[in-house]
Amino acid sequence: MPGLLAVSWAPERADRAGASLARVVTAAGPTCRVVRFAGAGSPHAALVTSPDGQVTVAAAGWCFAPGAADPPGGLLPHLAARFAAVGDAAFDGLQGQYLALAVDRRDGRLVAAPDQLGLFPVYVAEDDGVVWVTTSALPLATGLGARLDVEALRALFMDSAIRSPRSAFAGIRRASFGERVTITAGRARTARRWLPYRPPRPYRRIEDAADEGSGLLRATAGRVRAAWPAWVADLTSGLDSRLVVAALAEPGAPVHVTVNGPDDHLDVAIARLIADRFGWSLEHVGLPPDWGERRRPLFEDGVALADGELGGHAIDGTLYAKRRLASRFAASLTGGGGELYREFFWQQEYLRIGRTSALDVPRLLRYRFFPGVRPHTALFHADWRADYVADQVRTAAAIADLAPDALNTQKLDAIYLWKSSGHIGRYAGAVWPLLASPAPLATAELLEWATAVPWRFRLAGRLVRHMITRMHPALAALPTCYGGSAEPIRLTRPVHVTRYAVGAGARLVRKLGLMTVRHPIFANPTARPPEPAWNRDLVRRFDAEGLLDVERLRSASLYAPDGLSAFLAAARAPDFADFNQLYAIVTVETLCRLAGIVPAGERL
After folding, report:
1. Where are the alpha helices (DSSP H) in 194-279?
2. ∠ Cα 296 301 304 (to 5°)
3. Does the model's pTM come out above 0.85?
């Protein structure tokens, strides 16, 4: 699997480190080792040593220095020389989604610097005088003989994702935003070097804010085009992907966009309209009619590539689409991070938005994390739902407490950034081995700017609409899923205002429906419900492979015996509907098989 692996050990633990390395990679070294597994999409495929031979650096993912262009000679030679001169301050201000590593032979240090937003998956494990840093938890867990983190796996049964600081494996920790790890002789020290809290910028006009943000985004888009001339960008019916495309599109230059979904889906219709209007190349990827029969290998690949932090069913369709794109393109760009340019994550605060520092974290989780989730409790040895939610509340509350006097909007931005480690970052990390998957909106520089824009400018997507309009007015004028165009909403355009208000009301009713009666009441025009036969076909594949047979499951002891037997028997019935719980069971089983784990004493 492409990525980075680094290990540092105490002198007396050389034998232990060597034995573990032998199971992970066929490489070793005297006191520290960095191994680069290059992927086709990485712009940082080599390890580079400083001119004095004292510092070696490596990077995975998308990493670039602040400024208009890369330093002469490229980023990694610049980082190696700069680290030799100023130490790990050389990593300050790097942009993108990445892991940067440096080995300093002068003092034996290994420094690991994940991207400041904590999006690119980076894992740290300490094992009796040996410390490991890697971009993939599964191979490390296999090499170390790690056990499952049962508390983390509960997320899969809550239709959620495993987020930092947990991984799917006990003893393997995922780095969080702002963290940097310094390792010396098998001892790790983690320090938070960056926080997402910024004082508001003194913009008086939204146009001025939009102009500055557009300039920053255009510069970032230029970095993407330079790194991957063969790029394709997501284009849906929403605002975030359109914002990215508005920044990427240049007069006279080819533009390639992609959309997923069936032919009659709203995203597909609007993407086609836009591509036809501007003569852009459109890659439409729809799932095949026999998707239920074909998705099983991608389900397993998804569990592996996401290190067990997403259900296989949540990512198999994404892998299908990305593999199609990888035959033509080197990079697939997303609109991830765009929610932080809008009020998306604030809406449950209603009239308290931006007017207080108080934040009801438990309500936030009920509304934004688990609005309609009901795990099948008979599967488990105990009802752990309250404990799981309490664990998530503690993590979110700790993030809010990093700036106790900040406005609730700022605290929500920081919590959303953490939540994104299990969504934007986790999906991107799983896709990178197939092709590069940068998120231009989710760089530290841009999010520092966006979250410092006065909160009123971000309501109703105002900031994003102004940015799209200023960068590409013709693109802004075309329809969105919000009931009108992507142009700013003005009272002088009552039809646009009315359409937006009706759409906003429908979205609110859908969310309330999920929280109360567990279905959205009004249909979501951008939802992509699977064909009913696809689930049944996949379950038949599971059954044929023995995954519905308790006696053949490595993971069976995790569950209540009677509850598991009854549930798997029910899964064979034609009226079975609890597919997501079944997919969580199969995801955990797949993870056990991939990592060579047989649970012993762990209980869900």
Report:
1. 206-227, 240-248, 266-278
2. 135
3. yes
